[in-house]
Amino acid sequence: MDCGRIAIFGGGSWATAIAKMVLEKVPNIVWYIRRPEQIDEFKRLEHNPSYLTSVRFDVSRITFSSDINTAVDTCDTLIFVTPSPYVKHHLRKLKRKLHDKHIITAIKGIIPDEDLVCSEYFRQIYNVPDENLAVIGGPSHAEEVALGRLTYLTIGSADKDFSRSFADLMGSSYVKTKTSDDVIGIEYSSVLKNVYAIAAGICNGLKYGDNFQSVLISNAVQEMDRFLRAVYPIERVIYDSVYLGDLLVTGYSNFSRNRVFGTMIGRGYSVKNAQIEMEMIAEGYYGTACMKRINKHFHVNMPILDAVYNILYERISPAIEIKLLTDSFR
């Protein structure tokens, strides 16, 4: 199937990386960026002035807009890449219905006030049918996409034709793609890996070594598997790149803002000071509280999630909380 005209929503690093990938296959895109001054700078410099500044764009192939309704009206496939805490704020301005659009979410987070993964949010609030929804998952730091380093993406959708078409569009010499029907599993694992990356960062800040980090991650993937089996019990291979691979890269890489955030917490920063110094959103901070609330309905044994929650929201000493966590591991 033809994806039609494509719009990207978001002005951050992952949105910029996705725009780079999409423009390698299509002649032009619409790009919604909230701040008109950022658009003006982008046009002048021919690169995003704030993120991935090394990636050059032919701006004649981009129709920029700071009006979300214009972007939605003129396109068939909408790729949302805004941080999850801001999705509702952007969509409040929307007057156009979305039920006849193809919606792709590249947001690795949960809508905080709703405690819904993004595909569920679009389905429940905007009546977008399952066959029109897709997600992008997998280990994929925007910085490495910018450098043209080999990256593996998984496109999840209930509609196999839709997922295959979009996977083909995203593929290139440095991007390998495959498809999946595990939309909910991909989204929840994307949220949880951010939480576990914060845990890995906290342990790094506390000077725990590689030996312990390996035990932490092996327990994290077991915890992830338990939760996914409880919330959406289908056959899946948890060691696939879209689950374990994404967890590994987010937990270990220096490009991971969640790991960086956790490292700062482990070193003694307050949550507020860490957020101010980073100047970027660590999705796992919000995801931790959302997952804690969601798990009240499922009662899955999730000691790593609980430990990160206690540190971030109950202000328990990271040293004390992680010591308790280590005693529960084998």
From TrEMBL:
**Any idea which UniProt keywords this protein has?**
Lipid biosynthesis, Lipid metabolism, NAD, Oxidoreductase, Phospholipid biosynthesis, Phospholipid metabolism
Q: What is this protein called?
A: Glycerol-3-phosphate dehydrogenase
Record-listed substrate binding positions = 108, 257-258
Q: Under which EC number(s) is this enzyme classified?
A: 1.1.1.94
Which InterPro entries does this UniProt record tie to the protein?
A: 6-PGluconate_DH-like_C_sf (IPR008927), 6PGD_dom2 (IPR013328), G3P_DH_NAD-dep (IPR006168), G3P_DH_NAD-dep_C (IPR006109), G3P_DH_NAD-dep_N (IPR011128), NAD(P)-bd_dom_sf (IPR036291)
Family matches, as Pfam families: NAD_Gly3P_dh_C, NAD_Gly3P_dh_N
Q: Which GO terms describe its cellular component?
A: cytosol
Q: Which domain of life is it from?
A: Bacteria
Domain Glycerol-3-phosphate dehydrogenase NAD-dependent N-terminal, chain residue ranges per copy: 6-162
Q: Which GO terms describe its biological process?
A: carbohydrate metabolic process; glycerol-3-phosphate catabolic process; phospholipid biosynthetic process
Positions annotated to bind NAD(+): 142, 257
Reactions the enzyme catalyzes: sn-glycerol 3-phosphate + NADP(+) = dihydroxyacetone phosphate + NADPH + H(+)
Q: Where is the Glycerol-3-phosphate dehydrogenase NAD-dependent C-terminal domain?
A: 182-319
Catalytic residues (UniProt): 193
Q: Respond yes or no to whether keyword Lipid biosynthesis is given for this record.
A: yes
Q: Which family does it belong to?
A: Belongs to the NAD-dependent glycerol-3-phosphate dehydrogenase family.
| MF (Gene Ontology) | glycerol-3-phosphate dehydrogenase (NADP+) activity; NAD binding
- PANTHER family documented for this protein: GLYCEROL-3-PHOSPHATE DEHYDROGENASE, GLYCEROL-3-PHOSPHATE DEHYDROGENASE [NAD(+)] 2, CHLOROPLASTIC
